[in-house]
Amino acid sequence: MKNLALLAPPGGGKGTQAERLVKTLNIAHISTGDIFRSIVKGTYKGSFPVNEILDYMNKGLLVPDDIVVKITLERLNQDDCKNGFLLDGFPRTLNQAEMFDKLASDKKLDVVVLLEVNEDGLIKRLTGRRSCPKCGKIYNIYYTPPKKENICDDDGETLITRSDDTVETVKKRLDVYKNETMPLISYYEKKGVLKRVDGDRSVEEVFKQIMEVIEGK
Ligand code: AP5
User: How far is the CA of 12 from the centre of ligand 1 (A)?
Assistant: First the structure.
């Protein structure tokens, strides 16, 4: 069993790598960002403060810890997580990490992969991102474009741009990452589970490096 987490700035490649890792390792993918987008779309079961969540996301701010932790713990209790899971975008604050350690002590993280990415390229990655509303596949118009412009290679759906991928919101999300999420690097380093990977290489090279650090554990 492998319990993993990906730590990276917005646009750092968490979703892109998660898509490949969960297929290869046969573990569950838990993306808190995807869960919130499903809540906003009305396709995630439960009753949630939808407008409040959308407002935080569109401003580039974090959704409050109590909401995130509750949703993540509920998701982790589903059957598909028994074989291991990959957390993508959680935890994002020291408080979330501490609450997770306390409330999910039977689900300890084996490896936390930090994708180290140069900040200069992130705005281009995010403003160039397009994703498939049906299968979730992630593209980039500059680096990994679909074969046919704006159409998903796998299912022919028209690709969409995320509402929080504007230059202004991306800058705010990067500030939030530095102030609230980066302290997690030393938190997991002290626990001896942090592994650093160069996230500025090609998607395939980053994937290869992540598999090496996971298998080396
Ligand atoms: P979330 O969806 O998690 O957004 P994020 O962390 O800002 O990360 P992104 O999804 O933007 O980027 P990514 O690292 O997945 O990169 P990707 O692989 O897509 O969260 C959204 C919002 O939800 C938050 O702002 C917050 O409001 C809320 N939220 C979520 N979790 C929360 C939590 N725990 N607590 C509180 N609030 C929470 O790649 C980006 C682009 O780059 C793509 O176009 C891709 O094709 C391209 N790319 C990827 N890898 C490469 C590469 N190696 N080379 C070139 N291009 C690449």
Answer: 6
